[in-house]
Amino acid sequence: MHKSRISIYYNFECINGNNNNIRLLCITFLTGFMYTLLTNFYIGVSMMSMGMVTADTDMATAPNEFIVFEFEDSLYFEIIWPESLMYTYKLKEAKDFGTKFDTFHQGIELILADPIEACQDLYNDVRGLVVLIVRGECSFLTKTKIVEKAGALAAIITDNDETNDNTMIDMINDSTDRVVRIPSFFLLGKDGSMIRRQLSIVRSDRALINIPINLTGKPQVAARRPPWTIW
């Protein structure tokens, strides 16, 4: 029988038929169909509400391919040199201290702090640059204050857990009431570790970056993420 005729016959029998077996079959089919439909709808809405995926996201996308995401309090920068680090990196703004970028900086240097924890006056010249610091030994605010004193444009503090590839930490004030007038951000430990490692390979203490690439509030944003992190 032709497909359309089968459909018409089936629908007629479901509504008007006297055969109890057909009625039972219809009820079973419709119940299963509605359950599947509602389940898929619930999963889709849940993923959208958590910011995990938008309508254009391919969940099978490989880690180093372009992928669409958005985050409420995230800010991004991209490394344009060295080539091995040419990805977009996610940052999290300090929770209750520091300022925001008021302009876009293209091709600015991201320099490693020396000493790397930045809990004392720096040995290297960081004036007008973005400084990469490793978490630990002193507060986030102290680190930011020290590089600000040295003339830095901004501080990026990476986790000292080099395996951390997905957990963003709230950097909070240390209750000393000190005021910081430069931006300060948290960077995943895995990202920070890879940046330092690759800079060591090319025998440099700095990378070239574009910052900020602010993706907040946009419905769709394509970013080339590092293959070693999850976001």
TrEMBL record:
TM ranges: 22-43
Residue stretches making up the PA domain: 115-193
Keywords: Glycoprotein, Membrane, Signal, Transmembrane, Transmembrane helix
InterPro entries given in the database record: PA_dom_sf, PA_domain
UniProt-listed PANTHER family: PROTEASE-ASSOCIATED DOMAIN-CONTAINING PROTEIN, PROTEASE-ASSOCIATED DOMAIN-CONTAINING PROTEIN 1
Name of the featured protein: PA domain-containing protein
Species this chain originates from: Lymnaea stagnalis (Great pond snail)
